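Course assignment 3, question 2. Fill in each field.
Student: A.L.
Task: Predict the tertiary structure for the chain below.
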Amino acid sequence: MKKFIEWIKSPKSDFALFILLLILANVVGHNAYLRFDLTAPKSYSISKSSKQIVKTLEEPLSIKVFFDENLPAPYNNYAQYIKDLLEEYKGAAGENFSVSYMDMKKEENAALASDFGLRQIQIQEVKKTEVGFKQVYMGMVFTYGDAVEKLDSVTTIDGLEYKITSTISKMVSTVDTLSGLGKGNKIKLTLYMSSALKTLRISGMDQVEAYVKEAYRNVNKKNMDRIDFEVVSPDSSEVESVAERYGLQVISYRDEKQVFGLVLSLDDKFSVLPLQVERSFFGNMVAGLEDLEDGLDSGLQTLLSKSTKVGFVVGHYEHKLEDANDSANYVSIISNAGYEPVQLDLMSEDIPVGMSTIILDGPQQDYMEEELYKIDQFLMKGGNVLFFVDPLFAQGGGQYQMPTYLPLNLNLDTLLNAYGVKREFNYVMDKNCHHQATQRDGKMAFHWVPVVQKKDLAKHHPVTNNLGYVYMLSNGVIDASEAKENKDLKTTVLVRSSSESWIEDNQIMLNPQFIAPPKNAEFKSYDLAVMLEGKFKSAFDAPVMKTVYDEEGNEVDTSNDEMTAASYASESKLPGKVFVVGSSQITTAQLLDANSTSPIAMFLVNVLDYVNGREELCIMRTKGLSLNTLEIKSQALAQALKYFCIYGIVVLVVIAGLVALRVRAKHRNAIRKRYNPNDEREITKETSKKDGE
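Answer field:
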C-alpha cells in the first residue's frame, strides 16, 4: 500500500491517471447531458414554453423517430439535429417522456412506419460521378394516450421545435378534452347524403358510406371511442335548411335538390369535412375519399382545440374571410397557427367579450361612426387592433390601358391620427426589390416589392428578431412620429425600407418597364410597419349613442329620451396594442404560401402571437438558421465569397500556421539568448568548423 501511494505521488503515475481521468470524464458526459448553445436565436436549445409543456405531461408521451441512415447532404445532419433537440426535451421532461430511434434497416420498422401513415420521400443522391435517387423515411410519430400524431417528410429543420411543441400541445388538449366528455356527451360524425344520389351517375358515390365507415373506425379507435356515426338522408323539405345550417353542397337534378356532405359536431360546434362532388373531364365524381382519415383527424382537432378567436371586421369591401380558390391567405395562415377567425359585422353586433384581437384587413370604404367608436373603445379596454390599410386604390384600366391610382381616403384615419399614426398616400419604391427574369425583357426590377433585409427589421423584437428578410408589397409610408413622442406609448418600427428608397405619388404605373430610380430623387429609408404598445387616448370626446331603427327601418330620434345609458372611456383602462402597416396586399396569396413557411407568413403570425402575449411562439417559430441570409447585391461578389469560403479560409489557416511557427522559433531563440548565450556561439563555431573542413 505504501509503494502504491509513493507511485501515485511520483511522476510515473501521471500517464495512468490521465487515462483514468479521460474514462471518468466520458462516463460523466454520457450520463450527464450538457450543451452550450452559442447561436443568436438559440437554434439548438428549446424555449421555456416547450420545457413547460413536457414537464407537465399527465400521461406517457412516446416519440418514435423514423430516419434512414447514410443520408446524403444536407439531410445527413437532420437526424443528429433532431436527436439533439429531443434530448433537450427529454432533459426538461419528467418520466412521462420517452424517445425511440427506429433502425430502418429492419423490415418490421419499415412496415411499422407505413402502418403509421409515414410516406417514403425521394431525395437526390450523388455517388462519385453518378446522380441517382433514393427512397427514404424521414418522419416522427407521437403517441399520447390513445392519440397518435405524425410529422411526415421532415425535410427541413427550420421551425422544427415549433412543429414538435405544437403537435404535443394539440395532442394534450385533444386527449384532455376527450377525457372530460361525459358518457352521454359524444362527438357525432354525420354523413348527410340524400338517398337519390346513389341513382345518379356520380363516380364513387356508391362507395362513400364504406369509405367513411372505415375512416371512422380508425379515427374512433385512436380517440377513446368517443365518436358516434350515423348516415342521414334528409327529406326534400329539409334539404335547404340542412345545407344552409352547415354550408353543405346542394346537388340539383331535374328540379330536385339533394344534399351531400360530412359533418363532425359537438354541442353547438361543428366542422365540415372536405367531401363533395366535383366536375372532372370524365364526368361527376366524389372528391376527398382518399384523404378521409386525415380530414377526420384535422376536423376533430379543430373541433376540440381551445383556439383563440380573432375578429375580422367586414362590411367595407375588406379581403374575403373565406375563399375556396385561395388556400394561401391570411385567414388560412392564422388558422393553421391555432387561431379561430370570426367574421365581425360591427353595424349589427358588438365585439364579443373575451375576444382580445380584431383585424381590419384592406377596407375600401368608410366606417359608420358607431363602428369606429366600438373599435376605439375596444382598444381603450385593453384590446388589440391590427390595421392593414392600402394607401391607394386603382381606378379604371383595361386590357390595353393602365389603371389610375388615387389616394384611398378613409375616415379610419381619425382613429389612427388620434393614436399618433398618419398614413401617406404613396407607394414606396426600393432599389433593393424583387427581380424577375423574362425571355423577352431580361431581368426586370419590381421596385414596389421591396426585399427588406435583416438590418432594416427591428432588432431584438420577438416579431422580427430571427427573420433574415421579408418581402413587402405596394406599401405606403407610415408616419408614427407623434406616437414616438407620446411617453405613454412604446413605439417600434418593425419594418422599414432600405436607404435606397423613394416614393411615387403621382401618375403611378405599376409596370417594371416604366419605373426606374429617378436621378434627382431624395433616397432614404421609410417606415412601412409599426407597433404601438401602452395606454392610448380615445379618438372621441364623448360617447356615441347606438342608432335605433323602427320596424320599417327608419332611424329613430332618441335625443329627447328621458334616460340614456352609455359606456365611455376617454383613455385606456388597460394597456393595448396597435399594429399598422401601409398595405393589405401582404395578406394575400401574392406573397403568402399555403404552408406558412415564407418569411412574410411568419412575420404576420408573429405579429398576432405577439399582441396576444405569445412571445415564446414568435421566437420558436423563427429559429431556423437558413433565415439568417447575407445581403449580397452583386453576383461577382457572391462568387468571390463562395471561392473564399472554399479556398481562402484554407490559405489563411496555412498562413496562420507558418506565422505561428515563425513566432515560436523566434521565441525559442530569445529564450536561448537570455539563459544560454554561449549555446548560440558554440553552435556557430561548430557550424563554421564543419564548413571549413
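Instructor remarks: The two ends are 60 Å apart (CA to CA). The first helix runs from residue 2 to 9.
Grade: pending
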